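Teaching note: in complex prediction, the entire set of molecules is handled at once rather than each chain in isolation. The prompt given to students was simply: 'Predict the structure of this complex.' The entities are:
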Amino acid sequence: SQQGEEDPQALSIQEGENATMNCSYKTSINNLQWYRQNSGRGLVHLILIRSNEREKHSGRLRVTLDTSKKSSSLLITASRAADTASYFCATDARAAGNKLTFGGGTRVLVKP
Amino acid sequence: GAVVSQHPSWVICKSGTSVKIECRSLDFQATTMFWYRQFPKQSLMLMATSNEGSKATYEQGVEKDKFLINHASLTLSTLTVTSAHPEDSSFYICSVPSLPGELFFGEGSRLTVL
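The expected output is the structure of the full assembly:
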């Protein structure tokens, strides 16, 4: 079963708007990662946030982590059409043998 | 440039045939590689962990004899789908772990079994 559940499953926004997606998980984690997947392609690592971190930035990306609520959010600011993709959270948890477990993903469509 | 190379990117085969997919780590040696399967509009499901020089570790519910994994060198792992059937049609993706814990993914291989 999947460790992470993502919300929303799909998101459609206009270019320039911000996109926010959330990830909830069930067990304690070592870190949480976000990946991006263009249609029919492999995944690309975006950002990793450790369990003792609360917020992290990378360019137009902002990730938060709330371990008390077992949730994380990914914010893409000033979105561009090229940001259209599926975004997955993945958790690295000792209970899973330190293997990454992926959430269901959020499909983001940025309309020009 | 690409860190992980996966080949072929797509393959169509007849039911009953076997298909081999290669995953190469280009930039560094990989004692471990991961194989995932992804159905349309769904998440990645870990199939197995490929271990260089030893047997692969399969996830629960994954048939070892159906999905043969060989990791003969530190840069190459192969996944062979044996006696493929239409239900094996899927997107197969390999990944290589790096420090500090993130994964580099191949571009995936789309298998269509007729």
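Point out the following to students. The mean pLDDT of chain B is 93. The first strand of chain B starts at residue 4 and ends at 7.
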